[in-house]
Design brief:
Strand content: under 5%
Keywords: Membrane, Transmembrane, Transmembrane helix
Radius of gyration: 20 Å
Shape: rod-shaped
Low-confidence stretches: none
Number of domains: 1
Structural class: mainly alpha
Number of helices: 1
């Protein structure tokens, strides 16, 4: 029983960590794209 509980907790922890990292990196990538877009607009204005 304790082994199954450990696997269960590990699975939940892994799923939560994957979800959190996905949100974090998606936010970072979206921010990088936004900054790139703003820089591109600034270059076009010049």
């Amino acid at each position: 029983m304790p082994f199954q509980t450990t696997l269960f907790v590990a699975a939940i922890t892994a799923a939560f960590a994957t979800f959190w990292l996905a949100l974090f990196y998606a936010d970072r990538i979206a921010g990088a794209r936004a900054i790139t877009g703003e820089e591109e607009l600034a270059l076009r204005r010049k």
